[in-house]
Amino acid sequence: MTSWQSQGAEEEMNKLFAAVLFAALSFVSVHAENLADLQAISKQLDARKKDLDTREKNIRVKEERVKALEDNLIQKEIEIRKMQDAVTARLKEIKVQEDKNLDKLAKDYSSAKAKNAAQVIVKMDLDKAVQLFQRLPSMTAGKIISAMGTIDAAYAAKISERLTPDKIQGVQQ
Predict the structure, then answer these.
(1) Could you give the number of structural domains in the chain?
(2) 144 close to 151: Cβ distance less than 8 angstroms
(3) Measured distance CA(140)–CA(126) in Å, rounded
(4) Would you give the DSSP letter of residue 92?
(5) Is residue 101 part of a domain?
(6) Any residues with CB less than 8 A from the CB of 152 and at least 6 apart, and which?
(7) Is 69 a member of any domain?
(8) Cα-Cα-Cα-Cα dihedral sign, residues 158, 160, 164, 169
(9) Residue 111 DSSP SS3
(10) How many Cα atoms sit within 13 Å of 83 on the Cβ side?
């Protein structure tokens, strides 16, 4: 080989070496940038995972609290139903007792003089008086209403209206 050929080959080799070196440096540079990007992404993912783990823990705590509150509400609902049942039973007992008392009172007023019964009944609550009249025999009720008319005609009229069946009241209106 001639010197100019060896010199040309050496230049070619140098150019080739420079090209390979440039390519290698570019490759390393690109990979270094990619590695930096990957490390940044990895840090972001780690932070996001930590955030999600914290949120998941908070959600679990809240779910446990909601479950405890739900269990508490169910227990309270059961207690309220028991109380309602007890109140309903007690109201039935009171109603039965009131009915017995009104039956006895009706019996007592049936044997009293109409004028004396009327003087007491005009001072009674209207609803109770109506319930009492519903239990009195019709002859006794008529005598007492008549006697009440001389004491308090308006009150006697209210009782009479309440004792009138709805169909008759509807026809009159």
Answers:
(1) 1
(2) no
(3) 18
(4) H
(5) no
(6) 122
(7) no
(8) negative
(9) helix
(10) 6
Residue 8 has pLDDT above 80, yes or no: no
Per the structure block, which two tokens stand in for 77? 């609902």
Q: How high is the pLDDT of residue 37?
A: 77
pTM of the entire predicted model: 0.51
Measured distance CA(141)–CA(147) in Å, rounded: 10
pLDDT digit string (tens) for 142-159?
A: 999 999 999 999 999 999
Rounded CA separation 2/106 (Å) = 149
| pLDDT band with cut points at 50, 70 and 90 for residue 167 | low
Cα–Cα nearest to 130, from 99, 111, 150, 158:
158
Nearest to 135 by CA among 158, 107, 97, 156: 107
Token representation of residue 144: 């007492």
Q: In this model, does residue 9 exceed pLDDT 90?
A: no
- Whole-number Å distance between alpha carbons of 105 and 128: 11
The answer as to whether 39 is a domain residue is: no
Inside any domain, residue 125:
yes
User: What value does the mean pLDDT of the chain take?
Assistant: 86
Q: Which domain holds residue 126?
A: 112-164
Contact between 68 and 76 (Cβ < 8 Å)? no
Structure-model confidence comparison of residues 93 and 13, the more confident one: 93
